[in-house]
Amino acid sequence: MNLEEAADNPSAIDPASLAEREIGPVTILFGYENGKYPFGNSMLVRGEKQTAIIDPCLGVIPRAGSLPDIDLVIHSHTHEDHIAATYLFKNKPWHAHAADGLGLESIEGLMTIYGFADGPVYDGFKHEIETRFNYPGAGDLHLFEDGHEFDLGGVQVKVIHTPGHTRGHCCLEVIWGETAADRLVYLGDIELTGFGPYYGDAWSDLEDFERSIEKLKHVDARYWLTFHHKGLVESHEQFLKMLDAFASMIDKREAALLDYIEAPRTLEEIVQHRFVYRPGYEGLMVDAIEERSMSMHLDRLVRDGRVAQEGDRYRALS
Q1: 29 neighbors 20 (Cβ within 8 angstroms)
Q2: How many Cβ atoms from other residues are within 10 Å of residue 251's Cβ?
Q3: How far is residue 15's CA from residue 63's CA, in Å, rounded to a whole number?
Q4: 25: number of CA atoms within 13 Å, CB side?
Q5: Residue range(s) occupied by CATH 3.60.15.10 in the chain
Q6: What is the DSSP letter of 278?
Q7: Among candidate residues 129, 118, 214, 117, the one with its CA nearest the CA of residue 164
Q8: Distance linking the first and last C-alpha atoms of the chain
């Protein structure tokens, strides 16, 4: 079964083929191909009083028959791949940051977060979210803010608000002891990959993302888990190295942009040149993502006096 077949029919995946890892009260439910999109890595957190599932995704579906009783669902943010198995828990309370709750209230709210209101991109992506990603519809939604703690009974899940990817994106720190060795931080879509930070939605923000990265440098924990690709990182030192490499992609994109606009360029030319994706890469939302991402860089560069806007063209200043 290849990735596309697995995504189209996750219940056909043999659950025994999906890796798991237990660390203290946490069970990591690694997704197909280590959480490669559209799959991801979800988590169970068991306390003496309650069990939470964090970001139930496509990889939770084949495991549905073997899951323990779940008392609550916690979402790092409301993107399609992070809520793809939330429908399994319609009778349980759902929790999300107040700035992202709109995405779980209605499909239209989720499309607002992405920034699509109508047209072929809206129609195509909405259909995919409703079908492949099992949009759950409205549920028993509870909203939290930065610093909120879920007490599961001897185990706490602490909210670290890390906006940028979305307005309400959060990391979740699981604490079961007194030292950093008894802490795991779930990073959501701060993925630590070579692709770098993603800030291409209507509710994304480049400078918020940079502040969130800096905030995480001051969190002390042994274990770090990404939703996609990298998976589990088992030392604070290694996490910091990977976080710096991840963040460096912002500067690399900006430097490449400045090189490209040494000659005046329109935003359309900048979008087609590709700075987030590889040159020539095409996809349903790629142009919109490139435009939003690079517009944030251009706005900052113009504000800082490093780029001039001349009519519909942008030019780097010496």
Answers
A1: yes
A2: 10
A3: 6
A4: 24
A5: 3-249
A6: P
A7: 214
A8: 53
* pTM, to two decimals: 0.96
Q: Closest by alpha carbon to 31, among 52, 54, 49?
A: 54
What distance in Å separates the CA atoms of residue 88 and residue 170, rounded to the nearest whole number?
A: 22
CATH superfamily of 3-249: Ribonuclease Z/Hydroxyacylglutathione hydrolase-like (3.60.15.10)
Beta-carbon contacts of 291 under 8 Å, excluding residues fewer than 6 positions away, are 267, 271
Whether 232 contacts 224, CB under 8 Å = yes
User: CA–CA separation, 228 vs 193, rounded Å?
Assistant: 9
* Diameter over CA atoms, the chain: 63
The verdict on whether omega for the bond into residue 62 sits within 30 degrees of 0, i.e. cis, is no
Write phi, then psi, for 202 (nearest 5 degrees). -60, -30
Those residues whose C-beta lies under 8 Å from the C-beta of residue 256, and which sit 6 or more positions away, are: 275
The set of residues, in sequence order, having a beta carbon less than 8 Å from that of 129 and lying 6+ positions away, is 80, 107, 110, 111, 135
* Angle, helix 206-216 to helix 286-303, in steps of 10 degrees: 80
Tell me which residue of 179, 183, 168 sits closest to 82, measured CA to CA.
168
pLDDT tens profile 114-171: 998 888 889 999 999 999 999 999 899 999 999 999 999 999 999 999 999 999 999 9
Q: Parallel, antiparallel, or unpaired for β 94-97 and 141-144?
A: parallel
27: which strand partners?
22, 44
Using CA atoms in the order 86, 89, 91, 94, what is the torsion angle rounded to 10 degrees? -50
Distance CA 247, CA 215 (A): 12
Give the Cα separation of 16 and 62 in Å (integer): 9
pLDDT tens string 228-287? 999 999 999 999 999 999 999 999 999 999 999 999 999 999 999 999 999 999 988 899
